[in-house]
């Protein structure tokens, strides 16, 4: 069975890995989104599926007993190739899926609708999908709702990642004895190994933050008087 992949598959997999969500425990916030998808679409099965190199793994699930399936069996492997909702009204009549073990056997998929989980950079991490054991259609409002829920999942993943990065940055500061050594003249920062770095470099290394530059109102008045400067932030 062919396993299609995107042209930027390496970058997509790297983006997925950056969220550090694979193989984590269930979380109520994600489960509530999945349950809402099942309720709105009226399907017995709903999944938050993340597609890595060899499998689709379910961060959240409703109505299914397994935690993952091989990627070559995943309907979502097609969903992540695009940026729109993918709908299969009857899998037995679709040549891509008619012989799929998930169609011919448990869970006997007939209907599938999946909204890709798209990052701001355009990488599809997986999908939020709903499944039924009988052919059916979604209304336009149900389709819009499922896509909206998928966007919320990505926002939650982003918040989860940012929170983890901030916690790591705080831990880096704590390793310096809760004090951050800063040069009184050049404002350089000494790291925990005794090396001095420019503030911008330190922030980028330890927090993945890029500094921008500008001139505050007080310094502008002190050094330039009444001369009005353009916005110098870069």
Secondary-structure topology with pairs:
Blueprint: H1 9-18, H2 28-41, E1 45-51, E2 55-62, E3 68-70, H3 76-79, E4 86-88, H4 101-104, E5 111-118, E6 124-132, H5 140-174, E7 189-190, E8 196-197, H6 199-207, H7 217-224
Antiparallel strand pairs: 1-2, 1-6, 2-3, 4-5, 5-6, 7-8
Helix pairs in contact: 2-5
Question: Could you give a short description of this structure?
Answer:
The protein folds into 2 domains: 9-163, 2-Layer Sandwich (Beta-Lactamase), CATH 3.30.450; 175-224, no CATH class. The protein is built from 7 helices and 8 strands, in the order ααβββαβαββαββαα. The chain has helices at 9-18, 28-41, 76-79, 101-104, 140-174, 199-207, 217-224; strands at residues 45-51, 55-62, 68-70, 86-88, 111-118, 124-132, 189-190, 196-197.
Describe this structure in words.
The structure is a single chain. The mean pLDDT is 86. It is elongated and about 75 Å long. It is 36% helix and 18% strand. It folds into two domains: 9-163, GAF domain (Beta-Lactamase), CATH 3.30.450; 175-224, no CATH class. Strand 1 (45-51) and strand 2 form a beta hairpin. It is an alpha+beta fold and 234 residues long. It starts with 8 loop residues before the first helix and ends in a 10-residue tail after the last helix.
At CATH level 3, the topology of the largest domain is: Beta-Lactamase
| Major beta sheet, strand line-up | 3-2-1-6-5-4
CATH homologous superfamily label of the largest domain:
GAF domain
The biggest beta sheet is recorded as:
6 strands, antiparallel
Overall mean pLDDT stands at: 86
Strand segment count: 8
Gyration radius, in Å: 24 Å
In whole angstroms, how far apart are the ends?
50 Å
Helical amount: 25-40%
Number of domains as seen in the coordinates = 2
